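Hi team,

As requested, here is the filled-out complex form for the phenylalanine run. I kept the field names the same as last time so the parser does not choke. Let me know if anything looks off before we queue the next batch.

— J.
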Amino acid sequence: MQEQLKAILESAKQNIANASTKEDIEKIRVDYLGKKGQLTGILKSMGSLSKEERPIVGKIANEVRESIETMIADAAAAVKAAEKDVKIKEETLDVTVPGTQRKLGAKHPISVTIDEITKIFMSMGFSVADGPEVETVFNNFDGLNAPQNHPSRDLTDTFYIEDQENVLLRTQTSTVQIRTLLSQEPPIKIISPGRCFRCDTPDATHSPMFHQVEGLVVGEGITMADLKGTLDAFVKKLFGPETKTKLRPHHFPFTEPSAEVDVSCFKCGGKGCSVCKGSGWIEILGAGLVHPNVLKVGGIDTEKYSGFAFGMGVERVAMLKYEIDDIRLLYENDMRFIEQFK
Ligand code: PHE
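And here is what came back:
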């Protein structure tokens, strides 16, 4: 029996040495010390020993049990420690690893320019009106007094919505003039920034999509002097206090008289440089007194009221201000370009 106990101790030692998980160790404990375990079996059979042998074997059996218990406890502690090590390794945070960068974008120069223009007109008491980019032929042409044969109505100039002859992508923000005249009573004083579309092949100065800011003022006794004064105050705020304006006669169906408006070159002050192409002047918008036929669309009494309107090319202003030499740069989403406007 003593031999058996020795053998049990040896085999337990072996098994425990090979155990690597909590489950292995628990199985060993049950195998040796459990109710039906090997050591328990021996202890149970001790009744068959002689009186002399019993205390001796009993002592050895107790020592074996204690040894096995100690070995199991040690092994369990070792496994626990190893598991903890693994967990710590897994959860290690290396604070020296470079983080994921979230790059902050920048406001697009078109938005910067629209914001700036809007701010100036708001400071002069204008409010901001809005209109859709998909428009009716009436709001884009008919209501604006455009003759039936006006070249811009042509399919080659305007994007019409397929199967809908009367729906198009607006070619100008002047559509908001009609919307405003139909929905508001004078006095009217609005600007309206937004996108426009024309069938243009892209090049350095043309894009099939571009932006305009429309302006409309209707009230009693409004004259060309009000138009000129308003635009003069505006360009001085936008380009600097030295800036001068020049009105050149022009034609638009929806204004009479009409003018194209130039500003003195903010770069050279009018002497002539590469920005103004040597002329000293830069064209930035079209304007005029609202044609009576347009006022009539809004049911406005043309004996009592008159008004002025203007339409400004946002890309043109942005390109001049920031000296951008190709309009396509504005739409390429190249971070190297956009980041310069942070
Ligand atoms: N809508 C005109 C254009 O796109 C500009 C304009 C607006 C002219 C208002 C006069 C009055 O060219």
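Two things worth flagging: The domain at 109-341 is CATH 3.30.930.10 (BirA Bifunctional Protein; domain 2). The mean pLDDT is 92.

Thanks,
J.
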